[in-house]
Structures are given as C-alpha cells and as structure tokens.
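Quick one: co-fold with protoporphyrin IX containing FE.
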Amino acid sequence: MKITLNVWRQSSPEAAGSFVKYDVDGVSADMSMLEMLDVLNDRLESKGEAPIAFDHDCREGICGSCGFMINGVAHGPEKEITVCQTHMRSFKDGDELTLEPWRAMAFPVMRDLMVDRSAFDRIIQAGGYVSVRTGSAPEANATPVMKEHADMAFEAAACIGCGACVAACPNAAAMLFTSAKVSHLGLLPQGEPERDKRAIDMVAQMDKEGFGHCSNHGECEAVCPKGISVNFIARMNRDLLKATLRSSR
Amino acid sequence: MSWLQSLYASTIGKKAVMAITGLIIFGFTLGHMAGNLLAFFGEDTFNTYAATLKGNPPLLWGTRLLLLTVIPLHFLTAFQLIKRSNDARPATYSKWQPQRSTYASRTIRFGGIYLLGFILYHLAHYTLFLTNPEFGGYHDAQGRHDAFRMVVEGFSNPVNVAVYLVAMLSLVFHLSHGAWSMFQSMGLNHPKYNQLRERAAWTLAIVLTVGFSSVPIAVLTGVVHR
Amino acid sequence: MTLDGKCPSGPIETAWDRHRFNMKLVNPSNRRKYNVLVVGTGLAGAACAATLGELGFNVQAFCYQDSARRAHSIAAQGGINAAKNYQNDGDSVHRLFYDTVKGGDYRSRERNVHRLAQISVNIIDQAVAQGVPFAREYGGLLDNRSFGGAQVARTFYARGQTGQQLLLGAYSALSRQVHAGTVKLHTRTEMLDLVVIDGRARGIITRNLATGELESWVGDAVVLATGGYGNVFFLSTNAMGCNVTATYKAYKKGALFANPCYTQIHPTCIPVSGGYQSKLTLMSESLRNDGRVWVPKSAADATKDPSTLPEDQRDYYLERRYPSFGNLVPRDVASRNAKTVCDEGRGVGHEVDGQRRAVYLDFRDAIQRVGKSTIEARYGNLFHMYTKITGENPYESPMRIYPAIHYTMGGLWVDYNLMSNIEGLFVLGEANFSDHGANRLGASALMQGLADGYFVAPPTISDYLARVGWGSTVTAEHEGFKAAKGEANERIQKLLSIKGKRPVDSFHRELGNVMWDKCGMSRTKEGLEEALKRIPEIRAEFWENVNVPGENKGVNQSLERAGRVADFLEFGELMCLDALERAESCGGHFREESQTEDGEALRDDVNYCHTAAWEFKGVETAPTLHKEALTFDYVKLTQRSYK
Ligand SMILES: Cc1cc2nc3c(=O)[nH]c(=O)nc-3n(C[C@H](O)[C@H](O)[C@H](O)COP(=O)(O)OP(=O)(O)OC[C@H]3O[C@@H](n4cnc5c(N)ncnc54)[C@H](O)[C@@H]3O)c2cc1C
Ligand code: HEM
Ligand code: FES
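Sure, here it is.
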C-alpha cells in the first residue's frame, strides 16, 4: 500500500521545525510503523539526505524508548501498545498520517520526533526507590505481602517511562508516571518507611520540571501502552495530602 | 503554617484547594437553589425566607465571609493552574484527537470564567442592586424587603434570563466533571465506586441546573407571577 | 601468554568466602578518591555502579539510551533462577551449580558457576527489598515456576516482565546514588574506545549522542557491562542499539575475546515476514508446555491452510524424534530441528527470499483438552502479542515460530575476579564469557548479571583499587587519551566522508545473512571458510560505498549505526574463525562434522575442553588463540541426551 506521511522535521533543539510530506509506497501490512520509517530512512540515506530521527531500541514495547503522535494520538490508534508495536495493517492504502513529537515544556525536542525525557529520570532520582544498600536485605520471604497488594504494585510498576501520558495530557502533566512509581513502592511493605517522604519529594521534583497539573481528563490512561490506571493518581494525591498533613506534626 | 505553604506550592495541593473550595461553593449553591425554589410557593414564603436569612446576621455574614474567601481562592487557584498548564505545553499539536476526556472536562476553565463573570453580575444585580437601584426600595405588605418582586421583575427581562440560563448551562458542565473530579483530586477513589461517582456528579449537576433554571423560566412563562 | 583464571583452590563450597577474606579493603574515607567508570546500565552495570556508589567510590556511569532504565535487560521475560528451595522440591546451591555446569555443556569454569549458585539467593533478597514485585502466592510468600525443562521450580518471576522489574530495581538503586551524588550518569553517551596506559585500563573515549562531542574520561578502573553482541546477525531478539563496540574496542586494545562463536538460539520467536524486518520478537518458551510443534509431511502442503491438513499429513517431528522429552527438548535441539525441517523445504508461512522459514506451534489439542479459557489464562498476553504482530489468531490457527539469535555466551575473557587480562578492566554480565559455557540455561542470565553487579565485582574492584592505590598522575591530557580520541575522530570523519550509494543497514543485513547462514544454528568447515572470505569483501565495500549523511554535530543516528556496523564487520570474522577452530558440537554450537549417528551433537572433550581466548593482532591479520584448559572436579563430564 501507499502511505503519505506528514513528518515533523527539526534539525536541532534550537532550529525551527516544520512538517515535511513523504510518499512511501510498497508498504506491507506486516511492517511495523518503525519498519516503515526504516524503509523511508534507507531511501533518504541512499540519497544522502538526513533520515528521520526517532528514539527506539527494543522494538517490542518494553523499553519505553519509542513514542510519537500518530494523527494526534500518542502511540497511534491501537490501544495499549507502543509505536514500535503498531503495525501498518492498522492503516489502509492511501492513508495520510501526521507524525509529531511529544510536546511539553519539560520534554524539549532534540531532533525530528526525538525528545529529551530526562525529567523523568530526575523525578525517580528524587525518591523513586527504597533505600536499601546492597547486602543489607533481609531474607526475601521474611515479609509476606498480600497477593492483592503485590499484584496491584506490579500493575503500577509496569510503567515503561515512555512519556505518552505527558504527551496526551492537555496540561502536559506527569501525574500518571509519577503516581505509578509512588504507588508501586507505597503499596509494598518494603516501601512503607519512606512513603511520605517519597511522595513529597517526587511531586516536588515533578512540579519543578515544569509539568502541568492533573485535571482528571483521563487522556493519560487512554493512551498508556501498559494500561496504567488513573486510580494511581488518586492514590498519589491521597498519599501527598496525608504526608503533608503529617509533616506538620 | 509552613505545611500549608508547601501544600499550596504543589500542584496537587492546589488541586486540593480547587476541590475543597469547589465543594463548599457546590454546597452553598445547593442550599441557594433550595431557597430559590421557594419562589414557587409565592411571595409570602419567599419573602419570609429572605427575611429570615437577613435576620440572622451570624449565618448571613458567616456564609458571605466564607464565600468571599472561597470563591476568590477557587478563582485564583484556577488562574494559576491554567497558567501552569499553558506554560507546560508552549507548542501545541497541529493535530490532537481526544481519547477519553469529555467536552465538560475540556471546557471547565471557560465555563469557570463565564461563571465568574456571572457571579459578579449576579451580585451586582440582586445583592448590591447596582444594575437596578430600585430593587433595594421594594417592600412587601409587611414592610419586609420584597425579594419576590425583585426576582419576578428581574426575570421578566428575557436578556437577563438568557444570561442566567447560559450560566446554568456552564454550571452543568462545570459540575458534571468537577463534582467527581474533586474526589479524585482529594484521593477519594475506589474502583468499586468510581462509576457511581461520575453518575452522581451528573445527577447532582443536572438537579442543580434544573432547579436554578426553573425559577427564571417559570417567571418568564408566567407560571410564577406577582 | 598463560591464562590464569585465578580461581581459589580448596573446597569449592567455601572458595568464594575464603577468596573474599583474602581481598584487600579500601578505607572508607579514601574511597571517594577513586574514580570508577562503569559502561552500561543494564542489570550488571546498574547494580555495580549503584553498589560502588553506596560504598563511597566516585562512579561515572554511561549508557547509549536516553535513560539508564532502557538497557536491554528490560526485555527479559521468563524469570530468574535462585537456589532458595522455597518449593521444598530438592533444590540446593549444589543442584543449581550442577545443572548450570551441565546445561553449559561443560564449557564453563566450575568455580565461577558455584559462586553464581551461592549468590543467587542473595539476589532475590536484594530485589525483594528494593520493591521488585515478584509473583506471590495467596499466603503472601514468593511463587516459583519451573523453567526451561528444569526438574525443580526455582524460577522467580514477575508476570512476563521479570527483566523489566529487576532492571527497574537496579535502576532505582542507581537513581538513589545519583541523588546522593556518588554516581554521575551520562546517558545518550556511547563508548568508542578504551584507553590503556602502562598496561592498565585508565579510561574511555565517548561520543555524546546528542551533540556529537567526543570526550575523555579518566578512571582508576573501567567496568564494561555493555551486554551481548547478538546483533552481529542483524536479526535477533536484541534491541536495535545492542552492539559489540565497547568490548570489541577493548579487544583491539589487548583484551582477550573468549568463545565468540558461542551464541544461543531461541526456538520460539515470531518468524521473519519480509525483507524489511528489523528485529525478531521472542515468545516465551513456556508456550512449548502446551503447544505441539509440527510441519507438513510433504513439502507440497507447505502453503495449505494448516487446519485442513489431516493428522496423518502432519509431522510432529520433536515428538517423533525425542519421545521422552517431546516438545520440551532444550533450546538448541528444538532450534536445530526446526532448521532441518525447513531446509527440507517443509517450512511454512511467508516466503522470504525464496524460502519458507517457520514451523507450526499448535494449540488445537491443548484447547480441546483443557479448554480455551485455561489456555487464555496461561498464555493470553503472549497470544495477544502474537496477534498484534502477525494479525493472526492463534486460538484458531496454529502459531508460526522460528528460532532466532537470543543471547551470546561468548565475551571478553575474565578471571575469577571478573577482571580481563588488561589490569583494571572488569567485564560484567552478558559482555563477559564467564558462567554459561557453551549454552545458557533459561533464567540464568539475569542471575549472572545481578550476581556480577551487586555481589562479585564490587569487592573484587575494591581489592584491585586497594592494591594499586590512588593519586595517579594520568589525566585526559595524557598522550594515550589524545591518541585514542584522535583515532575515534578520524574514524568518524572517514565514515562521514565516504558518501557512497548504500545505506548503513544494507551492509548490516548482508553481514547478518552471512552470519546466520554460515555461523548460525549449524556450521560446517566449508561454510565458515566461505564466510571468512565473504566478510572482508563486505567490509571493504562498506568502507567504499556506505552513505552516512550529515555531519558529526547534534543527533546523527546514521553515524551511530555506521560505527556499530563497522565493528560488527570486523567482529563477525572473529566469530567465524572461532567457530571454525572449534571442530566439535557443543551447546548452541553445532558443527555438522561432529555428530552422532542419529544426528545429535557430539562433544569432543579430548580436543576442545577449553576456553578459546583470542588476541587481536590487526584487522587484516589473524588473531592468536590462547587456551584456558577447563577442569571438572565436582561435575562429571557426560554427553547430553534427550531421546
Ligand atoms: C528477549 C529477551 C528475553 C530474555 N529473557 C531472559 C530470561 O527470561 N531470563 C534470563 O535470565 N535472561 C533472559 N535474557 C537474557 C538477559 O536479559 C540478558 O542477558 C541480560 O539482561 C544482559 O544484561 P547486561 O546488564 O549484561 O546487559 P544489557 O542489559 O544489555 O545492558 C547493556 C548496557 O550497556 C550499554 N551499552 C552497550 N554498548 C554501549 C556502548 N558502546 N557505549 C555505552 N554504553 C553501551 C547499554 O546502554 C546498556 O545500558 C533475555 C534476553 C532477551 C533479548
Ligand atoms: C468563580 C468562578 C469559577 C471559576 C473561574 C472556576 C474555575 C475552575 C477551573 C478552571 C476548574 C478546573 C481546574 C482543573 O484544571 O483541574 C474548576 C474545578 C472545579 N470547580 Fe470551579 N470555577 C468557578 C466556579 C465554580 C462554582 C460556582 C462551583 C460549584 C458550584 C465550582 C466547583 C468546582 C469543582 C467541584 C471543581 C473540581 C475541582 C477538582 O477537579 O478537584 N466552581 N473550577
Ligand atoms: S522501542 Fe522499546 S518500547 Fe518501542
């Protein structure tokens, strides 16, 4: 099939970008979205033109490297998958697709569809961990964990840090990302001692990075490739409010 | 009070302020609506109600003071959040397709601004009598302030009614999202009750709006008259 | 050169403890005076950098991705082994040790493996304390499963995302140290060269992938935890960025490369669908517990709708050849047999380059036996993934699978301390050759990466640092750094100046095809010799005709790929040479000349019971082979059989 692409091209963080149109023919339904871009990039490279830059690595939906907007939807039209898992059979011959990078103040565009998501790392560095030195861990089965809590913690921990939640949020909020980590650790007995401090520190860093607030639109949950629930946002709100009240004592 | 400051400094704290102030205004509007509905029982009931309120300064001024703090706080916090949201996405998408958000959630800020304008107008109209100085001079047979006459005359003007009805429409949208969103903002959620929360929000929003709109419509259509 | 593994002597059970006691310590107040460079933030690198940071050393950590959390360890699905014996099914440190040595087809060092088995239990404790959400039973205790045909249930797992959860645990420990200021993280930074001064590893040269800037980093020790080189095959289950650059450059600087031809092939991957294919996706091995593997008996039926083929037209070849293990034969056996039936023209699925390379994995009988809902509960997420990729529904028509390159057992040679033959160069995780011999058992790579990173390397690195002392005068202005940086820059300029006709990927694909055909699942002398002729030709054309657009400024992904492919083009030759030299079949390495009468792998313990470690002598010159003899005092050498 033939696909027309409208791709955001921007040569450097400082440069002004614009959309460029490409016709890609010979697209097979079995190709992944990124393989279709590979084919286009090979053509561009053969002509000595700069290929379209985009982050990607595992190409199986787990590393969280890939991600851009396809026709105004983060990670494209299919639910609960990433751009790298999106296959061209989701589109039809003659379709026109607009590919645009994640847009947020805290995610500056580096080149084309590639953005800088280091703000996420700094949020984790602010408190997304249990302070346990190597070697100081107690026997693993010494602390039983309710299966329900363990399962729920896992669901939160499934976050791949791709940034789609920020990209889709009308306020460019990082609440789903932050709350997933706060909840994952907060739900486990291992994370309990630092629960208050973690919530306060991580939210403070999140705010400092310039992400927006949560209006409870739910866009983040809808595009999350791991289907992480906004219930975790409520849980983080609760944790933060409690922690702040407790800190007054 | 440093914890209050640090709370307000965070986006989550600001949202808690939105939720609590919103809840208070919401509570007030429910009471206000119930009072308004007394208009259907005629001049005497309505004026008695108005006079009772006036005759109870602690209640009257308590409410007024509360609203005078809470509404500006709601508005100011909203303003700060909107600014933050705009800053967080300086470059907008050429194309964006909503997936889950609703018309109500996306327009809450515009409805809010209309509501602010409306509240100011409403105060000027019926509380401070700035638009209609004559309202202050109406008295009923028992010498009480004739609030009933004021309402009927006010709503006999179709333009006025239109302003009110649009405000009520804004309110229905504002609250259909806001009345469940505030639970989420306060961290009050449970997967079992989340759907209930949303339904209750719509129901209350509609009750409130229908209740509020019924009086101006009833006056305009002559159902309520002097 | 004699290769000394430096293994402690005496009883194996106490070897590691005794060794640790004999190591030197660095005084806590002196630790911050040492700089350690850790390249790679996968399980091995992140664990090591975090632990060294906790101890108080000054650590610089590097990875090529935009975040440390994205290292390819993230993709591991199945689980991690540990000898906890929580299931009371007879597991023990000794049994895990025994299984791993045997599974490695007797080509690993006994003492390394024993240490690995001992440490396995500490890893689980550590991970749980970090908040890794392993699967649990209703009683709240940890759950286990049996994996890869093991007789005991010793595998800990977090749904199908064990690697992700373990890596996020290590990443969180790393993040904590970044916050504490002991670790400085350099993401989007690729190591291009190792700097060796007076026989000691003293630093690295990196390229900043965001700006193109080349930088020199000076350290008292250098740790490489840069993962495997499976991408030399172009198509593999590895991430697109996985490369050999770091370890290959160290090899060029004198580090020995051990057993490069040992690669593992995973039998259940989604087959290639077309020439554009960029990578292969692994489907968990657990599918073979219920799926039956077959191909049509006759090549003429290859294109027929499988559901229309009657039972007597199907060849359940694994069940036929291995009646006792059936579909659960080990990875290498399952893979090789799939290749054989496809070579016979009985492969199914898409035709790519004139060949059909896939076999059926059929759940029809299992669905009939236990019901669709049970199968859905067991494999729902895998079926979903399969449907997403292929557009087909495995509940209705059989899955198609084919083997793919998955893991590389070979790597830089290291001694018991995980130090290479270059002083101060430590190699961890998949990047070293240490613990898996010729074949890795399922769920043991995660174990090894974390054992190396959390528990083995930190004390051995401390010991090394204590011995060499601090206060070296080497700086980035040293000739060694200037020369290495100059070379790296020259090479980049060369790549950018060719401006030929072919894109980088086309060379990578071409190399990959040669490697897969000649140095893949089964190898012959002729094939390998052919490859050894062909690879230099491809390399020569690459340096004349590649087109790398743009310049060395800002993001240039073509340049990144070109540099990696250039290294693969040299490394592939080394792999083929090693494969040629090892004229025996062992583990994942099947030499057609060395097989039993009924076509099974035949190991040659008389001539090949050694580690082959190669020394670089120049790109166009043959490397020198050094052998480290392997001795087995605790596990008896036997031939594996699955009949
Ligand atoms: C699909 C899949 C499934 C698997 N499933 C399992 C399983 O169930 N159980 C199991 O035990 N094992 C499994 N494995 C194997 C296991 O995941 C890996 O062997 C292991 O995680 C490797 O860890 P590592 O730390 O050595 O390297 P990696 O995690 O690959 O990390 C390499 C690091 O080095 C960095 N790096 C690489 N090159 C450079 C360079 N030139 N410059 C700078 N940085 C560089 C990268 O950025 C990265 O941070 C699986 C592997 C795959 C591919
Ligand atoms: C003064 C005029 C008003 C303005 C400017 C205003 C503005 C806003 C805005 C912008 C929000 C959304 C904040 C966000 O992005 O999440 C909001 C939420 C809300 N508003 Fe208002 N509003 C006004 C009046 C009212 C009134 C009259 C009520 C009640 C009857 C009300 C109740 C609420 C509630 C309950 C919320 C939800 C809070 C939450 O999400 O936690 N508001 N308001
Ligand atoms: S490339 Fe790893 S999630 Fe898409």
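If it helps, Chain B has one domain: 12-88+102-220.
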